[in-house]
Amino acid sequence: MDQVGLWMPRPYASFDRRLVMSQLSPVLSDLYPGATKWLDRRLDDVEYGTAACRLIRSGASLKGVTIETPKGQNRLKLSTLWVGSDYRRMGIGRALLDACRVRWVERGLESVTLTADTSAASDLGVLLRRSGFTVAKIERDRYGEGRHEVIFEWLPVRDPLVDAPAAAMSPAVSPSA
Ligand SMILES: CC(C)(COP(=O)(O)OP(=O)(O)OC[C@H]1O[C@@H](n2cnc3c(N)ncnc32)[C@H](O)[C@@H]1OP(=O)(O)O)[C@@H](O)C(=O)NCCC(=O)NCCS
Q1: How far apart are CA 92 and CA 59, in angstroms?
Q2: Sheet holding 111-117, edge to edge
Q3: What is the DSSP letter of 172?
């Protein structure tokens, strides 16, 4: 069943920490050296209010998560956009990204970057391109030989939301996620 529009991400709360660490840390560790420590520090930042995390969970299952890290006043990095493998192609990734984009447009951000390993970039690419991102650069061998990183960049002028009527910027109605 197509569930696009049914998911509503909510802000991370400290009680989510154990679940996010247990499910996201192994995924990121496969991609990046030092990922567990990085994630721990990022969640500290989220709890101090200097980074943002949104998620969709159902009980003990983390369905999807975003982590945003500010880069100065008007830019940020979407450090993580991830949907659990059992929950893909149900609209969760789109719901997570849409919730971010609405805030980026409202805040008048100048740009947002997301870097992804080439193995994740093909899944991410379709969703990102529809949402105002393009490939800005490819950093070859960034984390070792053959481990290239694709750097996507979002600009407001490229985002279809910017010209959308106000109704399109209202959050989706949620199920019991
Ligand atoms: C990319 C990702 C977030 C997509 O999440 P998702 O919940 O499956 O995405 P959605 O169901 O919302 O799909 C939105 C659109 O993206 C596109 N898409 C998503 N996965 C795709 C795939 N594997 N191939 C082609 N297109 C894809 C489709 O166009 C889809 O629209 P459609 O359903 O109308 O065809 C998910 O595959 C993922 O988390 N991949 C791993 C990313 C990763 O490693 N992140 C960690 C480092 S940042």
Answers
A1: 16
A2: 10-11, 52-58, 61-70, 75-83, 111-117, 149-154, 133-139
A3: P
How many Cβ atoms are within 10 Å of 18's Cβ, its own excluded?
10
As for ligand 1, residues whose beta carbon falls within 6 Å of it are: 80-83, 88-94, 116, 120, 123-124, 126-127
Maximum separation of any 2 CA atoms in the chain, in Å: 47
HSE (CB half, 13 Å, CA atoms) of 150? 16
**Assigned token pair, 124:** 């991410």
* Domains of the chain as residue ranges with CATH: 10-169 (3.40.630.30)
pLDDT at residue 113, rounded to an integer: 98
Contacts of 120 (CB under 8 A, 6+ apart): 31
Q: For tokens 């989706």, what's the residue?
A: 172
The CA 90 to ligand 1 mean position distance, Å, reads 9
Mean pLDDT by 10 residues, the chain (177 residues): 71 98 96 94 98 96 97 96 96 97 96 93 94 95 87 96 65 42
Degrees, nearest 5: CA angle 128-174-22: 65
Q: Tell me the C-alpha distance between 30 and 105, whole Å.
A: 32
Residue of 1, 127, 130, 152 to mutate, ligand 1, most atoms within 8 A of C-beta: 127
pLDDT at 142: 85
